[in-house]
Amino acid sequence: MILFSVLSPLENAVRWLLDQFHYHLGLPWAWAIVATTIVVRIILVPLTVRQIHSMQSMQKHAPEMKEIQRKYKGDRQKLNEELMKFYKENNINPAASCLPLVAQFPVFISLYLVLRHFSKHVPPGSDLSWLHVVPNIAAKANSHWSGYLLLVVYAGSQILSTYFMSATMDKAQRTIMMIVPLIFITVIARFPAGLVLYWVTTNLWTVGQGLITRRLMPKTPAPAWPRRTPAKKPEPQPVKAPEPAKAVAPAPPAPRRVRRKKKGGTRR
Question: How many structural domains is the chain composed of?
Fold first, then answer.
């Protein structure tokens, strides 16, 4: 297929990484897959930072976006136009939250191609077990009871990672995002157990990343606008006219005191 031929360089890179971890560092093949997953996630750190900033920005402007959705809920086309305009004005990229997941998909397919003929690639008698529980990471997950145990771990890690990735969604969307991956368990069960191990590792990385992000990065306060009921302005109080000054009656003049002459005065 054309897709497989395009991914051939990436398939060779994944096989080279597995060889380095196994032959040069002495890791078992199962733990080489875990180490390869960690290397992939480290390479994707710049995309992860963009994902975190996008989620914070979406959370910050969530009240405004909900107000736009409420205003244009009857006109789907107008709603999309206003949301795109709002994203552009506030430098929001809603697709950034999916970049790490999309970037991992080619690696996922490449690892599948490596594990598909893994028994031919490794020397005969190689230890392909994981924790001595999964006997063969190149075999299908549903071929052994331990594969089902690994699928249960995958389901739990998928729910936790989706919880942290969908922090800005409403409850209905978050519930759908948690349930849909579980539906694909029947499909994933047909993949090699090593591929399930890869996805469990990347899910646990996402959980740890979400815990660290919540602890270290400050929460972005939501803006006060928009309000459903605008605050009432205080009504202006009527200005009372000043009362006219009362006329003050002039004080009556003080009575004049007349000095009386003393009787028996001497005459000249």
Answer: 1
In a domain, 241, yes or no: no
pTM comes to: 0.72
**What token pair was written down for 158?**
């998928």
Partners of 130 in beta bridges: 134
Angle (nearest 5°) at CA 176 between 167 and 214: 15
Note whether residue 253 is domain-resident: no
Tens digits of per-residue pLDDT, 151-202? Answer: 999 988 888 887 776 655 556 666 776 777 777 788 888 999 999 999 999 9
Torsions phi, psi for 211 (to 5 deg): -65, -45
Residue at 263 is within a domain? no
Report if residue 113 sits inside a domain. yes
Q: Which domain holds residue 170?
A: 2-216
Query: Cβ atoms within 10 A of the Cβ of 89, count?
Result: 9
Q: What is the C-alpha separation between 93 and 51, in angstroms, rounded?
A: 9
Dihedral angle sign, alpha carbons of residues 66, 70, 73, 75: negative
